[in-house]
Amino acid sequence: EPPSSGYGTPLGSPLGNYGNQNYEGGNGHHDNDHGEPKSYEFGYQVKDEYTGNNYNRKEASDGNQVRGEYRVQLPDGRTQIVTYYADWQTGFHADVKYEGTAQYPEQYNNYQGGYNNGPSGQYGGSNYAQNNGYNGGGSATSSVSIKDYSSGSGGQYNSGYNSGSNYDSYSGNNFGSLGDAVTNATKFDYKDIPNFPVSTVMGHAGRLLFGHIGSTPVVCMQGRFHFYEGYSLSACTMPVRLMKLLGVTTLVVSNAAGGINPSYRTGQIMLIKDQINFLGLAGVNPLRGHNDERFGDRFVAMNDVFDPEINKLAKSVGEMTGLKEIQEGVYASVGGPTYETVAEVNLMRVLGVDAVGMSTVHETVVAKHCGLKVFAFSLITNECVASYSSKETPDGEEVLQVAKENEGKLKGFVEKMIPHLAKSKL
Ligand SMILES: O=P(O)(O)O[C@@H]1C[C@H](O)[C@@H](CO)O1
Ligand SMILES: Nc1nc2[nH]cnc2c(=O)[nH]1
């Protein structure tokens, strides 16, 4: 049976259990199976990060009196603690207490949808972090995401094709005009979508677009969610699963990234041929915790997440649309929001990283888990500083600026790539 999406109450009421165990309706405590009172004890705990269910119970009886306690995480952030005892002479007695303070945040920041395994306690019991501050990058978590700076929309696209029943998804961020590539778009603000994270990051409109690129149906996220904003990785990647449920079959993800490879230049596109999941290697993975089998298996192969054939297609489509010096390389993501030290840049060079960012990797993990095809690319927005003698420093404004300068060509690329991808059936 699928897990309930509600916060859940302890299974069976204390009274129900009480009645079913040693006592029967209060008409004599010897009316049980064998006429003798029995002692027992039991306990259980449920902590299901996917559904947000969090409760436990323990109970014991010496044959005469039942004592127990259960705790339930309430949707308003408080924990309800019920301590009870019961016996056949006096009945059931409960003491109900609450821990914590009920929170009624402005909107949606008490995210109980089960995406609560991220940085705990940062935001007063809310499972969502607030979006605070600028994020320069930010493709989508689900299908294709494209950054949208120009019109204040960061973006992810999910583009679907296959006569509307299957979708290709494409996500990008920071590239404002990519949202414009979606024709006849119906737009939903994230804040109006129940249980959706909200995007307040500069440059991110926080909108979900449904429309077409060419004849391909697409869903586009204008604005993605980052770990450094305080969201858990499962919250960051929740839209990927939404896309899957909508019928998306291919996720296209874009990001702004720093060039680690010394030959890379600002403004170039790098097709992602592989990735290094630094957070994942350290144990911070969006798939950590309960595995929802409805989406995929517990263990997930990642060696084949990027398809060389799709990149080959992307290279030729990119060249057709006038992209110069298209690179293909390894993307690594860090938690951010700090940019890399000189030592970190050199470490990454040794490790074979070509470009570094703060997104995408966990999105592709979740996409692979639920069986989405993935196409991902980076815009190199800055050249990472690898020498102590350099006076350069990366900065968010530069990332935004370079994204803005290049969004036109990225739009052209995406407009061509999505229909080709759909047609090629790759
Ligand atoms: O969302 P992406 O990965 O495109 O954005 C990158 C990473 C940070 O959000 C930002 C840093 O400048 O750009
Ligand atoms: N970590 C990281 N993310 C980026 N996003 C855009 N540029 C950079 C960068 O230099 N480093």
Based on secondary structure, the structural category is: alpha/beta
Sheet-strand content, in percent, reads 25-35%
On the 0 to 100 scale, the average pLDDT is 79
Count of helical segments?
A: 8
Tell me what you see in this structure.
It is a single chain. It is elongated, with a radius of gyration of 26 Å. By secondary structure, it is of the alpha/beta class. Strands 1-2-3-4-5 form a five-stranded antiparallel beta sheet. Strands 12-15-14-13-16 form a five-stranded mixed β-barrel, surrounded by four helices. It is built from eight helices and 16 strands. The structure holds the ligand O=P(O)(O)O[C@@H]1C[C@H](O)[C@@H](CO)O1 and guanine. The site of guanine (GUN) has 17 residues, from strand 12, strand 15 and strand 16.
Brief digest:
The chain is α/β, with parallel strands linked by helices.
